[in-house]
Amino acid sequence: MTIDVPLPRSGDVPRRPRSTRSSRMVAPGTLRVLRMLAAHPEGVDLAALGGHLGRTDTGVLPVLQRLVRDGHVEHRDGGTYRLRPGPSWGGIPAAGTAPRRELPAMLSDAVTELYRRTRAWAYLIEWADDDQIDLVDIRGHQGLGNIPELPARVPPTMAHALAVSKVLVAHAPGRRARLDPSRWTAYTPATITSPDAYDLELARIRRDGYALDREEFAAGFSCVCAPIADPGGRVGAAIAITLPAPRFRVELDRLVADVTDVARVAHRQWYR
To answer: What is the DSSP letter of 22?
Structure first.
């Protein structure tokens, strides 16, 4: 699955064909990131990588997200990235790496369509087998408001604070049972940390068909997210946008309509 960032501000949005791990060629920029990580086994943060490569954080993040997604790099709790221990280039997953199923390519098309409609950062999210929430695909461009410090793999300890994880938890009760409220952090004054309040929020999400993040993870940023059920009815993926809170408040109704409509279309197309 590809992550194409940044994108042009107008016109058609090009998207490279998705390639398999065995046939994907390694770009020079990716090699430079891997070399720096190899030289710093203790881990390197995003700002240091950008400074070394002469690129902005936004320019380096998609490379790191691909490497995390493919199992070559891990994102640590302190915000640093490092090479994942164990074999990674021979198609053999590192120890402890959960097996992954590929989402259909048309879901990436849905991300492009959502970005085209809203001109906000658009995401495709998947609940992985190890209870991490993976940012599988992203569309956006520099100048748009994007949530800072959002990892490519969201751990269960963040699941209370993000719309992208709340919507996936709401539609699978078993996931809620695996969350530990004692580890929930109040990232902002708006973060839900009460289990009772969280369960009420999940019930609202199931009733309304979408989830919201009202500056719950990062002050100044909000999110709208809708679930996408697979042909078997399982909600393992979702689509979302993130944007500055002032725009979110002014345009909320239209943004909710766009996100839920794109999610419904993607769900119907998944059946074809």
So the answer is: T
In degrees rounded to 5, what are phi and psi of residue 199?
Answer: -65, -35
Q: Kindly give the pairing relationship between strand 121-127 and strand 80-83.
A: unpaired
Longest distance between any two alpha carbons in the chain, whole Å: 50
Cβ 157 vs Cβ 180: under 8 Å: yes
Please report how many Cα atoms fall inside a 13 Å half-sphere around the Cα of residue 247, on the Cβ side: 16
User: 59, 69 in Cβ contact below 8 A?
Assistant: no
What whole-number distance in Å separates Cα of residue 180 and Cα of residue 177? 8
* Beta bridge partner(s), residue 212: 224
pLDDT in tens, 179-205: 999 999 999 999 999 999 999 999 999
Record the tokens describing residue 6, joined without a space.
């940044």
Give the predicted TM-score (pTM) of the model: 0.65
**Quick one: tokens of 192?**
């839900």
Pair 238, 226: CB distance under 8 Å: yes
How far is 240 from 84, CA to CA, in rounded Å?
Answer: 28
